Amino acid sequence: MDAASAIAAELARRAAPESAAACMELTETLAAATDMNEAALSGLIEVVDRRKEAQRWGFPSTRSWLRSRLGMRESRAKERLNLARQRHRLAQVATRLATGDLPLGYASTIADAVARLDDTDCRAAEQTLLQMVGKGFSAGKIASFGKRIRDVVAERDGTERADRDTRCGYERSWIDSTRSLDGGRYIRGWLNAEDAAVWDGTLGPLAKPAGADDRRDLSERTAAALGSVLSGGHRATKVTVVCDLDTLTGGTAPARLTDGTPIPAAQARRIALNAGVSPLLLGRGHTPLYLGHRVRFATGPQRQVLETLYPTCAVQGCEVPGTLCEVDHVRGWALGRSPTDIDVLSLCCGWHNRYKHTNPDRLHITTDENGRYIYRLRPPGAAPPAERRPPPWPRAA
């Protein structure tokens, strides 16, 4: 690994040759070598995924680890993970990729095509798709033919074949979505018991008949309920403007949106007065931000403050937007250590919120210069560092 890293560093430092023909030849050679490196990387990722090592380090999944620690885009992480999971079933693909005889694009496409086939169908599909590669078909054509293979298998069996791993634990819920020719979308999938309970609790009340004249069947009402939830239903769009009181009363200091976008003071006043958008005043004010132990759940005003402070989950590297996160009692409300007060609340995604509750010694909690909490995942077995408590926020009178 050290030698490969040193070679890569040396190549990166070198200037490209002046000859375009030489650059083309070197590009093809380097691309083939890169594909062989990808074969080695696939083997490493397969072990990490099979033994759930990423979860031991506090990541929700192997894909989350690839995105957070290796900086991969979602599509790239998914492609690499799928290849790692299928390589043990694709002997010819794995061998040819490792020897530089098969480009990574073809290997990834074949791995995606066989992901939901059983071992027997997988072997037949691998042979067929490799023959198409030999005939010069593009990766896009291979992908289309792989989808057709899955459809034929489903028709032959009289059912849509699901991944055998879909019934194994919380992470194995899955949804496939395919766009139809008329712009619509086919959806199929499987939810485990926990996700199914959330589905039923959210969509069940909305999927009831709208009245005696409602002729829709349950599947149609469920689709309408899902569309209502995804679009926000009757809830109006909410915009939060963060600014000083002086700005609202005629000052020139700029305001900002929750994503950090600055807006002129005059525009902030127009938004607040004419568009029905409520300005959020951070400080004492009249907003009840400190509720003590009497109240378990955060209020709407408290959540509005937290969404302003936390654009994403408080766990470092987690990309879940703050608007989709849960309000977390930093020191655990159930333990009686953390009241429902704004200075001991943060936003945490659902997975990390559960992880924090079951692995309290695996998170190192600090604050930044703005008083926001930062949760850092610690490696398994590492000694917990001394926790630096945040300075107290000014409490409301």
Description:
The protein is of the alpha+beta class and 397 residues long. Among the domains are: 23-161, no CATH class; 241-280, no CATH class; 300-377, no CATH class. Helix content is 45%, strand content 10%. The protein has helices at 2-13, 20-50, 53-56, 62-70, 74-86, 91-98, 104-113, 119-134, 139-157, 193-203, 218-231, 245-248, 265-274, 300-309, 350-358, and strands at 174-179, 185-190, 241-242, 255-257, 262-263, 279-280, 326-329, 345-348, 363-367, 373-377. The strands form four sheets. It has a four-stranded mixed sheet. It has a two-stranded antiparallel sheet with strand order 1-2. Strand 4 and strand 5 (262-263) form a beta hairpin. The longest helix is centred in the first third of the chain and has 31 residues, at 20-50. The radius of gyration is 26 Å and the shape is globular. Mean pLDDT is 77; it is low at 161-170, 274-295 and 387-397.
**C-alpha termini separation:** 60 Å
- Secondary-structure element string: HHHHHHHHHEEHHEHEEHEHEEHEE
Helix coverage percent of residues? Answer: 40-55%
What would you report as the Rg, rounded to the nearest angstrom?
Answer: 26 Å
Low-confidence stretches: 161-170, 274-295, 387-397
User: What can be said about the biggest beta sheet?
Assistant: 4 strands, mixed
Count all strands and give the number.
Answer: 10
Give the DSSP E fraction (strand runs of 2 or more residues): 5-15%
Structural class: alpha+beta
Strand order of the largest sheet: 5-4-3-6
Calculate the mean pLDDT score and round it.
Answer: 77
Q: Count of DSSP helices?
A: 15
Shape: globular
Domain DUF222: 27-307
Region (Disordered): 376-397
Pfam families: DUF222
Protein name: DUF222 domain-containing protein
